[in-house]
Amino acid sequence: MSARKMIPFVLLNIVVSTVVVLAILYWWDNRDGGADTAVSLPTTVTPSFLQNTAVPQQEIATNTPEPDDSPLIHIVQAGDTLGTISTLYDVSLEDIMAENGLTNANIISIGQQIIIPIAGVSTAVPPPTAVPEEPVLPTPVPTEPVGAGEPDVGITAVIGPDQLADEAVLLTNNGDAPIALQNWSLQDADGYEYLFAQVTLFAGSDLRIHTTVGSSSPTDLYWGLDEAIWVSGEVVTLRDSSGAIYTTFEVP
User: Fold this and answer.
1) Which residues form the LysM domain (predicted)?
2) What fold, for 153-250?
3) pLDDT > 70? residue 128
4) Which residues are registered as beta bridge partners of 220?
5) Cβ contacts of 109 within 8 Å, gap of 6 or more
6) Out of 5-14, 46-55, 107-116, 211-220, which region has the weakest mean confidence (pLDDT)?
């Protein structure tokens, strides 16, 4: 569109805008006066009836929760005591202690689970008493009485003298009855002494007392020394439990 053709539209827009502004100013100047002569017209409200169009909600089947038979548990927090727990649940201190098997009301720990007997202390059902079966006793093996008769123990030999790895004193029970050697001792001339523990030397059997270190067995005992002590001409002395010399042996 050319500028010449737009001039009428621009002028018309200016005129319309001017008229609107003047009308607004005129209304603004005369609005207070007009308010005094305004007549209130009654407004009639016509009631209308709203039809309930709501669709009834379909009932949803729900499962009725079964009563929970699990006991009420209180987790001990910092600052809790059995007294405060008793007051909190309105349950006597004695019932709480009895239900939880507590003997000292002052000893509980953080995180400990305390059963609260709301309905009273539960009655423990005693476990069925097991009927003991008759034990099957093994058939006793006849044994010879230890120490019966006169002991007859001899030092038979010194094996591997002056060789720590092989050195051992050999004892032999030449009698007909086993001999208890507890508190008997084996000695040399330099003051070394081996004290027998609870050892039984059976009739006709041998017992080796090794000088070196090792694990003892019914037939081999270990003195635990770190050097050989038996040399040619050395006297081996065997003493009984009273300390009396029972027999001697000279190393060949």
Assistant:
1) 72-116
2) Immunoglobulin-like (2.60.40)
3) no
4) 208
5) 76
6) 46-55
